[in-house]
Amino acid sequence: MSDIKARAQGLSPDVAARDILNVVKDTENIYETLAIVSRRARQLAVDLKHELDQKLEEFAEVTDTIEEVVENKEQIEISKFYEKLPNPVLIAMREYLDDELYHRYNNARDEEEEV
């Protein structure tokens, strides 16, 4: 029981139950909403990974031996910062609920609805 409490204390405040009616207010379809949020989450994950790789690339050292391990405190701090960031899905859901995401349908889908 204490293990669950310890894990729950470290969770981001964005982890919470969501009102489904509020989540689907724009699309009126939960699956469509989740598709929008998941696409944005993938974009965020790729961007964060790219940004982290660029920052860590500055500290990259090429060594001939595998046995030699070099610890860089700045590199460790950067890694810890990115580990503490909320999950990209949580960020994307927050953006969606705050009406910060723009989404539209393809023309092919619009034509199907007219028929």
Description:
This protein has 115 residues and is mainly alpha-helical. The protein has one domain (2-60, 71-108). Helix content is 61%, strand content 0%. The chain is built from six helices and no strands. It has helices at 2-9, 20-23, 30-57, 73-84, 88-97, 107-114. Helix 3 (30-57) packs antiparallel against helix 4 (73-84) and helix 3 (30-57) crosses helix 5. The longest helix is centred in the middle third of the chain and has 28 residues, at 30-57. The model is unreliable at 1-9 (pLDDT under 50).
| Average of the residue pLDDT scores | 78
Uncertain spans, ≥5 residues at pLDDT below 50? 1-9
Number of domains: 1
User: What is the total tally of β strands?
Assistant: 0
**Structural class of the secondary elements?**
mainly alpha
The backbone outline, from C-alpha atoms, is: elongated
- Count, helices: 6
What is the terminal-to-terminal distance?
A: 57 Å
The radius of gyration is: 20 Å
The biggest beta sheet reads: none
Beta-strand percentage range: under 5%
**What share of residues is helical?**
55-70%
SSE order in H/E notation?
Answer: HHHHHH
Coiled coil: 38-72
Protein name: RNA polymerase Rpb6
Organism: Neolewinella agarilytica
GO molecular function: DNA binding; DNA-directed RNA polymerase activity
